[in-house]
Design a protein that fits this description.
The N and C termini lie far apart (74 Å). This protein has 117 residues and is of the alpha+beta class. The relative contact order is 0.20. The protein has a domain of 81 residues: Phosphatidylinositol 3-kinase Catalytic Subunit, Chain A, domain 1 (Ubiquitin-like (UB roll), Roll). About 8% of the residues have low confidence. It has 3 helices and 5 strands.
Length: 117
């Protein structure tokens, strides 16, 4: 029998660049930083080749975007009771939150026309 706490938990399947996966369960209140620390402290046996030196370089990617450290799972409105897939990568720094949007704005000023002779 499952209790309400189990239903409120967020199930994540983390995928490494190597393609290896591992399932974890977290609270909706856990942040990206909390998740990185938990994974680092409970590094799966099958991931030994990918072990990193510090939890501070572990980054989560969800729907193509890096999650900044203070973003909680609850803020992402993940479906309860389902497993959500995220990528886990080692990266020293994150791109600025609006750098992708800025790059898109710059592209709109370019001309993409061609000249027909």
């Amino acid at each position: 029998m499952t209790n309400q706490r189990d239903l409120d938990m967020v199930h994540l399947r983390l995928i490494l660049v190597s393609g290896k996966t591992q399932d974890f369960t977290f609270s909706p209140n856990d942040s990206a930083t909390d998740i990185a620390k938990h994974v680092f402290e409970n590094w799966p046996a099958g991931w030994e080749e990918e072990r990193v030196s510090s939890p501070s370089i572990l980054r989560l990617i969800f729907q193509g975007r890096f999650l900044h450290g203070n973003v909680t799972l609850g803020a992402l409105k993940l479906p309860p009771g389902r497993t959500t897939v995220m990528h886990l990568v080692a990266r020293e720094t994150l791109p600025e939150p609006n750098s992708h949007g800025q790059r898109n704005r710059e592209k709109t000023t370019e001309s993409n026309c061609c000249l027909l002779l």
